[in-house]
Every structure is written in structure tokens, then in C-alpha cells.
Amino acid sequence: MYERMARPLSIRLWPRVSLGLNTGPEASAGTGLQETVSMGERKRRIGMGLVGPGFVAAHHLDAVRRLGDVDVIAIAGSSQAATDRKAADLHVDKAYGSYQDLIDNPDIEVVHNTTPNYLHLDVSMAAIKAGKHVISDKPLAMTYAECSMLRDAAQAAGVVNVVTFNYRGNPLVQHARRMAAENDIGQLFFLHGRYLQDWMADDHVYSWRLDKKKGGSSSALADIGSHWCDLAQHISGLKIVAVLAEMTTVVKTRYAPAVPREAFSGKDGKVMDPVEIGSEDLASVLLRFNSGATGCLSVGQITPGHKNDLEIELNGRTGSLRWNQENQNELWIGRYDRPNSVMARDPSQLPDGARRYAQLPAGHNEGWSDAFRNVIDDAYSWIRAEGDTDARPATICTFADACQICAVVEAMLLSHQAGGVWQMVVDEASPSLKIRSTVPENGLLSEYVATKAGS
Ligand SMILES: NC(=O)c1ccc[n+]([C@@H]2O[C@H](COP(=O)([O-])OP(=O)(O)OC[C@H]3O[C@@H](n4cnc5c(N)ncnc54)[C@H](O)[C@@H]3O)[C@@H](O)[C@H]2O)c1
Known about the structure:
single chain, alpha/beta
């Protein structure tokens, strides 16, 4: 359907400023920890445009504006009239009723894609075809097949490609990652946590996310479980290679407004129609990592009292780490042979690789949008480096990385559909990933377990 781009990957470098550069052998895996800072160089300005001006779009624009060296050229929405209104609200000079018109604007070098999931493929592919760099919000696309088309097209076109798994941009996440990489808590054997929200607890809340044609086959797992999986892999340096999932739809009938609303906008008293829901709002998943470590994850969007409760804990042989997004200025460090401690986000106590992600002094709490800004900052730094692999900041999730996360979510769907059996994660770009023990390379883990039990 989409032809590959002929343009080869350019490696011409722009002056690097404030980059967390991956210069070591781990760079291509995005796990390098080195940092190079050169002061006083003037950065060239970059023009960006955004397609899909809804909830998260405002945070993309806020982030690029805080950088100070990126110009917001235009936004494109679902119609000219709606986008004109949005442009006024968001203080953007130019509004397009068609994303292709935005992509065709020669002043726009980078396209941010914050459309509903079903438009991710078309919008990102059109931008790639036009030779624009793409910063897409997650998920990369609706299915693994779509994701791999985008991964291959972006690689062939040589454009910078980024998916905003924004929790990577938190300074204490970076510190936890460094501690894991430096064996500070010993060999990891258990990674567990949750991502629970309650914004869909009310059956009168409806989102395109719950329509399989617009959101995809999975709701909670693809929408927020994907964040947790990316974070677990990012902090630990491990990969999820097998899953066993149980998915539930707790709220089976919802009441949707005749006119669609943006995410998190709640009830507004208008007439609502009943809609039967087919995708999950709750899931429990067992995990296996490529090192042999195990894990478990709870995901829900209907759990009262849990607002944006992403929590991850890593247990190593000599220590544990726990980080909670709602209390993100603290990192719990557990020990069995000395007192536990809680580390505050204090730039003066953070090592180099994590310190540059802390924008404020200790006690001046940072939050979700600060971490988001950090990821966008790194994305533009990498764009200035023209996507040079060695210059890729570790917070960057590429289309290839996001493809693998999609493969993890699809494995969860397959596991559930098969009745709750172990399912291997199959990602063609990382075929060498295996469970360390003698589990077969492909096929169902449960079959292997059954075979072993019977043999
Ligand atoms: N990284 C995060 O933490 C995070 C948070 C929220 C959403 N997201 C992702 O961002 C994307 C958008 O989510 P949202 O919550 O902002 O949704 P939203 O519904 O609030 O916004 C989507 C916007 O896209 C517009 N749109 C619809 N059709 C369009 C078209 N043909 N052309 C251009 N624009 C069109 C809509 O009018 C709306 O303004 C989703 O993929 C979601 O998964 C990520």
C-alpha cells in the first residue's frame, strides 16, 4: 500500500547542545547513560505543525514552546471551522482543515501526530512521504502490521521518528534506570506494578478509545498498559518476551454523546445514546522478561480513586526500587540489610545522566508536563542531530521500539483470546530475543509447559 522512501538516512550533524548522548555500544538500544553538554551554541530554529488538536495536543504545544527554539507554525484538525476555534484557543497563527495541507507547508519540518489512534497510520505515513520528521503520540498505530509499515517507511526515508512514551522523561525514572544498569540493586528477578485510572468509571463517559474501529482492539492495555510496559523495559533494560493476560469489560454499556468530545472532558448534560462496549477496561497480566525475570501488571480505567496511578517496582537480589507517577518527586529504595530510604528529586544529588531532566531545585515539585517537555526536548535535540544513531537520547522511543510495544500488547490480546495461556511476543525486528531458559523460540509457552509436564 505504501511504497518505501528512496531517501537514504542522512548522518550530517548539527551542533549538539544539551544532549544526553548515547555514545557507548548500547546506544542503538537506547540504553546509553553518557551525557555531553556544550554551552553557548546557538540552536537553529525548527518549524513544527501538529495534527489532531485535542487533549494531549495542548501539552505537545506547551512543551515545544517551553524549548524556546521551535516555532509552532500551524495545527490541523477535523474541519476548518473546528480548527479555527482551536487555533484561537491555543494561540496558533495558522489553522488547516486538512492534515495534508499542513504537511505540505514548507515551513514545517516536524509533524506532531496527536490524532485518535485510527488516524495515526495515515497522518504519520503522509508526513514520512513528504520527508518530514514525525513525533507521534502513542500508540504508534492500531496494529503491529500498521506499526511495522511506519517503522520501515521512516527508516527508509531517513526521517527522525519518535513516539512519546513521556514517563521516560522523569529525572527519577532516569535515576532508577541508571541504578538498574549499574547493578545497584543486583540481578532483577521481579518487575510489578499497575496503571490504574478512574476517568472512565462513570458509564456516561465515552471516548473514541472504546470504539474498536477508532481506538483499536484493546482499550486499557493499549492506551495505558503500553506506557507501563515501555517504562518497565526502559528502566530495567530488559524486554518482555511472553505474557499471560486476562481482560475484562466491567462497564459493558456506556452512554455516548451524539457529538464526540475530547478525552477527559466528562459529562456535560447533553443527550446520550447507549453503546455496547467490546474492549477491556480492566486487565491482569503475568509477564516474562528475556533475562528470565518475571512480573505482573494490573491495568484499569474504571478503578475509583485511582487518577493516574502508574506505579512500578523492580526487585533485584540486593535492593528494590519503586516509583509512582502521582508521587513522582520521590523514589523508594528498599534494602534487606540496611534501612529503606526515600530519595527526593534533588538535582544536587542526582548523577549527570538524570540531573539534566530536573528543571527545578529540590522541593519545587515537578510533574507530568515537565517530564513530557523533557522528552520533547530530547526529540528536537535528536532532530538537530539528524537522527544520528549515536546521538539518540535514551528517553527517545523510536518507531521500532514502539512496534515492539505493540507486539507486547497484541500478545496480551492473543493470550486472552486463547483462554488465558502464555503467549510469546513476536517482533520481527528483534527475533533474537528469547527467554533465557529453554522455552521454544516461537509458539505458545503453555504448550511448552504442558509438553514438559507430560514428558
Ligand atoms: N502520551 C500520553 O500520555 C497521552 C495522553 C493522552 C493521549 N495520548 C494519545 O494521543 C492521541 C490523542 O488523544 P487525545 O486524548 O488527545 O484525544 P482527543 O480526542 O482529545 O483529541 C484528538 C483530536 O484529533 C482531532 N481529529 C479527529 N479527526 C481528525 C482529522 N481527520 N484530522 C485532524 N485532526 C483530527 C479531534 O478533533 C481532536 O481534536 C491518542 O493516540 C492517545 O493515545 C497520549
